[in-house]
Design a protein that fits this description.
Layout: H1 3-15, H2 20-29, H3 33-42, H4 49-56, H5 60-72, E1 76-80, E2 88-92, H6 94-115, H7 120-134
Antiparallel strand pairs: 1-2
Helix pairs in contact: 3-6, 4-5
Length: 135
């Protein structure tokens, strides 16, 4: 099996001009704000800006820009950490939860739209393969 050839074929499928809307849709969701909101929603502990930078593998400066955007939109709040008032703890607000829920719903709709192009068994095979690759 020639995995390189298959990788090239898969790349060309995704990069095809007909799939520009797919790339744009995914890029819009991966700019960081929704990733940050998911981290805050799913965290069981207090989250500091530096924690987000580490989890996402990006600079603290880039996180600071995203946090400023999120705060302006009312999606997060900042408060001094209980254990050290010099540190800032981030929390997702109800508006942030709503925005994240709406984005996730749009993503689910998007994924569903292309899974409907194949049979139910093919869709399940695709999911099973994705689990093997990404887990």
């Amino acid at each position: 099996m020639n995995y390189r050839r298959q990788a090239e074929e898969f790349y060309h499928i995704l990069a095809n001009n007909n799939n520009v809307k797919i790339s744009k849709f995914l890029d819009d969701g991966l700019r960081g704000i929704y990733v940050i909101l998911r981290i805050l929603r799913d965290s069981k502990t207090e989250i500091l800006p530096g924690d987000i930078a580490k989890m996402m593998g990006i600079s603290t400066a880039r996180v600071a820009v995203a946090l400023k955007t999120l705060e302006k939109k009312g999606y997060i709040s900042k408060a001094p950490a209980a254990y050290d008032g010099r540190k800032i703890v981030l929390k997702i607000t109800p508006a942030g939860l709503q925005a994240l829920s709406e984005r996730e719903s749009a993503v689910y709709d998007f994924i569903e739209s292309f899974l409907k192009k194949v049979s139910a068994s093919e869709a399940q095979t695709f999911i099973d393969i994705a689990k093997k690759i990404f887990n």
